[in-house]
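Ex. 9. Protein: VCBS repeat-containing protein.
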Amino acid sequence: MVYGYFNNDNSRDLVVLNQDDNSVNILLGKKDGNFPTEITFITGNTPFALKVADLNYDGVPDLAVTNENSQSISVLIGNALGNFESQTQYSVGNDPHALIFDYFNNDTHLDAVVSNYYDSTISMLLGNDDGTFQDQIVQAVGTQPSGLTSGDFNNDSILDAAVTNQGDNTINVLISNGNGTFQVVGTYQIGNGSDSLVSHDFNNDELLDLAVVNFYETTVSILLGNGDGTFQQSVYYQAGPSPNSIISADFNNDNQNDLIVANWQANTVSVLFGDGHGHFLTLAAYDAGNTTSSVIVADFNNDNMLDLAVADYTGETISVLIRWANGSVQPKVQYAAGNQPRSMVTTDFNGDNNTDLIAANLGDNNLMLMLGNGDGTLQGRLTYMIPQASNSLAVGNMKNDNKSILILTNQNNTVEILSNCSYGTFQTTLMFATGRNPSSALLYDFNNDKTLDLLVTNMNDNSVSVLLILGNGTVQNEMKFQTGRKPISLISGDFNSDNKMDLAVTNYDGRNISVLLGNENGTFQPQTMYTSGINPNCVISVDLNNDGILDLVVANQGDNTVSILLGNRNGIFQTQMKYNVGSGPSVVATADFNLDNKMDIAVVNQYSNNIDIMFGDKNMAFLTRQFFPTGISPSIILVDDFNNNEKPDLAVINKLSNNLMIFLNSCP
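Predicted structure tokens for VCBS repeat-containing protein:
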């Protein structure tokens, strides 16, 4: 994929290859970053690489395409109206991959260099002034050459070339003789599956350096140039899985060259931010569709900030990621977690006034603590082994000492309280028996003795356990209150405005919600049931319509809906309003995400692997929606301010990807 100004309207247009159709599509752009018009042109067989250049010097950009199965390149001359003349094909080697244009023989006519994958050669086609090319000059290079770039690597004012060789994991540096031929003066080892490469000055020494993606190693190789045509040995930086395309640009406006990498297997784009000394410090990842095959940067919406466009190979789509004023793009940062992360909480665990995050990993029987830096990023993992596999995790403060405690519901029918020692370490202090298969827990002072009490849902007993905790840390006898079938989630709130805390419980097998009004002494009235969708999995309480009364929001995993039950001041809820969402909604959260003083809803769709943001309005219609891709099987979501900018951000646990993602709020 490439861009250019093909129809003289001052808006950038896109060109996309269609390998199955042997064609290219021109998408004519508008100033708002949209591409409503599409035109198709025929190429050779299996087009592979694209370049835009003014080949006949008429001020109008032209196109050139390598054709893998035609052993040729196609040249299409543009006419300034967004149209192109029929292709002219030029013979090159076997399975041509990459293509570059530059002035290699100093005659002011653009020349073409093509890498021929199965011939282990490159083809030089010297250009004429009318957009045509001379017959190829063939030169041997390493095994299975793939990527190409050009630059004056030895500072003799003649342009040189560099080629990646996938078959032997090397780069050849080719110094130009000035007549269209090259000398191979250096061969450098790089990573496995070397593919796309760029040349730029990454350490501000006015000498060109090289950056290469290594497809099979999830890395980028950096080779700093010495200015005489030689390069230093490779230094490796982490990218996403299967990186296959790379470009360089100043993406965060700090006057340093950054790297943007398309990750084929991860369906993401990684941005590696340069520090101006040849190092790359921060890795940010942005979702970009399935099997991302190519990435470019340009200002697509004319706001003087670089945006991203990414080609989706299997989804046959183009993703345009518009950058916000704060430098973020579809704002997700991904962190590795343990095996099968099941639950997650946030608070300030180490007393530095930054939001930290802790997750329980079901498959590892451990807790993973990641300390926040206050800028939306998290430090490396600290792990704590726990004796039992944990179903859920909650956080609270029992002693008013600014040290958080953790509450774990365990699969051995216990609930465990871990105290926070030394700001960021934990030890077990209390453990209590519960009902069968405790699924979620809640801390609150339900009997007004100024000590937090503990409530637990018992899925296999169809009950809620109430454990009133005394000031000395002991617990009164467990009390149980009946719920519906398989209670899985609970929330507390004053639903009837009597200053006593009440409960709402989702009954996964019952298609309903239980509401238990509180008596202030730690006991509850018999349940009242309200109809929900199928398999209600999560419930939260919030005032959605600004009437001062708590409402309920429920994720119904079985019928792909969200239910809203508006509250009345007497503790009775109205009949549900249902909204269709993605597949398998598992968790909901609320906040004013777009800062319009109306409450919005975030829904985690476990089976469609995304987040659905439902933006609130005065009519409770939630007509405006926005989806954000996640990892595989997202199961937990939390709202917090991770970068201290007073805007609600999101953290998501992906159970089958074994990672967590931070979505920073980019609302201006």
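Check your answer against this statement. Residues 463 and 483 are 5 Å apart (CA to CA).
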